[in-house]
TrEMBL record:
Gene3D superfamilies: Rhodanese-like domain, Ypt/Rab-GAP domain of gyp1p, domain 3. Residues 301-411 form the Rhodanese domain. PROSITE patterns: RHODANESE_3. Residues 525-534 have a biased composition (Acidic residues). Residues 477-487 have a biased composition (Low complexity). It comes from the Eukaryota. Residues 469-534 are annotated as: Disordered. Residues 498-519 have a biased composition (Basic and acidic residues). GO terms for cellular component: cytosol; trans-Golgi network. It comes from Entamoeba nuttalli (strain P19) (Amoeba). This is Rhodanese domain-containing protein. One of its GO terms (biological process) is vesicle tethering to Golgi.
Amino acid sequence: MEIPERAIEYMKEAINSIDVVLLRELCREFGIPETLRLEIWKLFLQPKKEIVEEKITSNYVSKWIVEDNEILIEETNKIASAIHPIGTQPFFNCIVDVAAVVSKIFQQESIEMRCGITKSIIYKFHPFYKHLYPTIITGLQNLIHILLLYHDPILSIHLDTNRIEPTEYTNAFAFNLCINMCDSIDIISKMWDEFITFPDTTLYIYCVVGYLIYLRKRILDAKDHQGVLNVINQPLKINDIKTIIAYSKAIRLSTASSFNRILLGIMNNSESYQKIFSKSLTSSLFLTPLVNDIINDKFNRQFPYLFIDCRRQESFDLGTIAAAINLDYSKRQDDRSYLENLFKNELSILTQSNSTFHVVLFGDDDTVDGNPDIGELSMIGLDFAKRGVKRVSIMQEGFLKYHKNALANMKGFQLMNHETETCPLCTTGKPLNFGLLEGTKKLKQSITQSTVEKTQQLTHGLIGFLYGNNTKKEDQQPTSQNQNTTNEEIKQTPPTQVEDKEQLTSKNEEVNENMKDENNINTEENIDDNSEEEDDNYLKELIEESSKYNSYLNIGGKQTIWKPVTIVLTTISILIVEIHNNKITLLDDISYETISKVVMKKADPERFTIVHSGGKCTIRIPEYYQKFIEEISKLQG
């Protein structure tokens, strides 16, 4: 499409005045003209000329350079070596490919400037290259697999069934800014135009999933490992890439906020990722959103959530999340028809093609010791995925955290069937204890133990085990001796129904004695304290990494009453927090996508009214309010 002359004039004016907002919108609408690409890229990337040493540490030749062009081959390897020594870089060839594309697009520029542009692209979109630890590589691979399972479970299962590991499509696209999707330098430059001018630097991650979904029909038609690989490795034309980018933007908008938090944590190797999210990525196949993020998405982004309470019926009857549906994990284990009946009745809407629900599974909490534990919740999630149910996730910290927030009267947290006089969490501080049914519990553990262990090893052949692939039979099928042992265990009658009074009394006494001897460190109160401390640490770290302004919040409505607060501008939302004696209280979380307008009067420029889908709030920023305006405009995009 030819760009109108008037639009090009506006672009030039925006470049001269450094009007990033106007320039971004013009580029989104019309694309970037080749004559202005260098200037526009420089404005968004802010590259600096880099010193390029004469040494070459690799003889790799990028496919984007003609083999007889020895000078360009040598220069691209020098650029890559200047950015990262090959000895510390497992994806060094990806940097060479990026340098080769930059050198082909801007051949007239000096090698120092080309090195600066390449380095800016690498560090802007791949900040993990600064510290490319195994946990980052594994986390990124797992997270892209989780995103694909979230939006297209049937396609994800098909790839897993044909032994297409997440490493194959992640390594092919996520470490080189998706250049392998294209069949020419011109298409790559137009795709990078989109990435560079888009306000979120993680768009290309969503493009990996968008690319696979775009090839969905051809992938599902492929019947073996090599057939799928042949489809994935075929580069696409410009119209295909434009469609993929548009679809990827839609995927990003319909993905839970917690995904982007985890993704940014991986990108920057943040402390919160190392301590919290890296564990959830290796213990679950599914996205594990934070409780507060779920409620924020529900009210501010208008996500239609359906909560599935996977606790036992007895716990569900004593209080649960408003409008939740009970899926008793113990009945699912004991009765095969139980789940089928649920999907024919209460859950039938989820299997319809026009379903828009985001499904959230939860138990007491999401730990290995939870009830049900994270392994069992993942198995239930797979029951949904195999039926083609999209957007399934497992809520972090489960009902314990939700119940605590609801009792604190936090906005959006509502309970159902809840009476403080009978609720075990209100009366004892603990969920219902089913420990007396020890025989049944041991029987279930013997059946599910191997499944739970496999669930915690996503990158080591997990997927094939779960979906019944024909991979190494000696790893999947128990020996005849083990099979006989399992059969004997299943035939045993759980010792909970035919016990006389003396046996039951002695068992109760044993349980009481064991409870007295337990170390206080393992009590659930301390577990709750640890989870609260992790939340506080995560929030503190998020505040430290983001811009913050000492401000005041109007809590009196028309009768103005100013409350001292701190405004924090993260990459995806505005946090309004209260900090007192090193304790942080989150008052509101406003996503940029939900903001319709920000009102400021010239007579009182320090005062702002933020209007969003969840309502409006008025704040006052006595200092640096001009900087606040510039930053929120940039982040809102």
